[in-house]
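User: Fold both of these, please.

Assistant: Here is the first one.
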Amino acid sequence: MHVVINGWFLNQLTTGSGQYLHHLLDYLSCAPDRAHLSLVAPVVKPARQIRALQARWPSVDMMTGMQLPLPAKIGKLWWEQVTIPLAVRRLQADVLWVPYWAAPFWQPCPTVVTVHDLIHRLLPAYQGGRLQQLYTQLVSYTAQHATAVITVSHAGARDIIAELGIPGERVYVVYNGAEEGLVAGQDLTYLNAVREKYQLPERYFLYLGGFDLRKNVRTTLEAYRRYLDQGGDPAIRLVVAGRLPVTDTAFAPNPQKIAAELALTTQIQFCGWVDEVDKPALYALATAYLFPGLYEGFGLMLLEAMQAGAPVVTSAK
């Protein structure tokens, strides 16, 4: 069986879809009964990035497609709706797999699409303007006409069946898995090196993730403020990890501003972007991991934290 994969998120490791694609390719490329896999991705510069990925996945045919000089959003739409189906036909694929919510309108062969969540349909703050809404309608339609839909949780499957009207027998739940990494108590030299690299306090609560509304970061900071006001140990500081919003907006409030409002600037440490290889150590060193999200398709970071041995404090939904 020849499976063509839409590789739009190749090398975009700051996105969940990019992480999902890379880690699944790691496993699929070495599976004993693997299909013939072809990854069609936009031209990546410099070329050494492609060579490195070819070395990483030698059993995957790496193909690049030219991107037209179009505005970013239009270029992505063209890639999904024109470049990919044409490549599928040219390569005579048996199956097209799109590892994010963007199956093509024209599907020359059986198509499988991964829908991680329905945030842009369910949460008003994420629905965007008219163009974003039209795009959501398009990918909703194309998912409805796909041969199969993969999602990452039973909650996601319930949403897909209810919102998109896709029969349950065409929706498959395939859980995300945490990357194999450091477990608490192992390799103390490395743990200490990571503590030094990010100047981590001896004891800390950890928030690691995004800063948009559904991540509910304000609640995390307010809860920490109440913890201190009610006699909590001030020696346990709060470490907030992740790339901060460039601007402070209602959609993505800057947590540094919230920390100042709550008089927490001396108690909270913002350590910025964390290298992927260092994340297990940050979890393992934490007193607890805090993640009060309002909506998650899966919530992979909860699994990562538990795998590293960190107690988790999270929301019910």
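And the second sequence with its predicted structure:
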Amino acid sequence: MSKNRVLIVDDTPSNLDSLLNILQDEYEIAVANNGKKAIEICRSEHKPDMILLDIVMPEMDGYEVCERIKSDKQTQDIPIIFITVLSDDESETKGLSLGAVDYIYKPFNPILVKARVKNNIKLKLYRDELELLLKENEEIMMAQSKHAEMGNMISVIAHQWKQPLSAISAVANKIIFDIELDKYDIEQIKEHAHIVNDQVQELSKIIKDFANFFKPNKELQSITLQELVHMTQSIISSTLKSNGVELSCEVDDTPISTYVRELMQVLVNILVNAQDALLERNIENPRIVLSLKHDDTSLMISICDNAGGIDDNLLDKVFEKYFTTKTGKGGTGIGLYIVKKIIEDHLNGNITVMNQDDGACFKIQMPLSQA
């Protein structure tokens, strides 16, 4: 098993030698005699698992080194123990406020040094393991969300296939009926064949739309807002229409650069949620308004319904993991959580929800261009 790596930062050679002698049997040691070199080591491929950092150094003192390390995402998780002759409360408070986890005072007590380094490295390893488990759990949740969404989309496909299949069935029955009565002619057969072919093309288009929707695509695409809305409507409009839900869109032809499939996933998810709320509450004249507006740099999207809104006590919980108002009705509670993750982590935006007028309104703000 490889040893944990400890970086010792001190401008005094005797201090470096003392700490090296105390720790070298148990840890892989790196040394730096100034703050600049310490930061370089922390940003290298072999980052340390722990830093022992002297406070009083020329050019860049330990406080500044600590502040720089903690402000850099690449290095901010490395635990820092200050080594110092300063023992007043003010100095200790300042160090801890900058992100240090502990203090070791000079002259060094070998037993104390070993114990504090060992305990804080253990804590770091536990934290790293927890973060890994959380990341794995996040990936599982994303997969669950995708499966749940695919189930919803299969239902939507079924709705959208009804009309073309009904048309094909009607034409087939008409052909059979005419044959049995010996009333058909070549021109009529051609006409019926064209109708069947048109409906088959429509079925093919529906499948292509959904295949594209689920196709992984992490590349930026240029698209106009009208095209984005049209593509979203191709996924959801038939289901909304079959359930009597009116969808009105306010949009112009402004071009944007974004991750189109992920943004569509967000829009479809929120629209389906709005539809479910409208149907569950038996709203008369159910409607959803999708609005896309912009300024020079930002895109503002709002999706509002007239389903009566969300309980005020639940508004701040709707984006939480596993929260759902559909207990026992197939709700997983991960849809809106994943929506928030996509908006914040992938599209560099933010999403909020509020009650206004006679329903709930989701508002998204994100860059007009992700480039």
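The longest strand covers residues 359-367.
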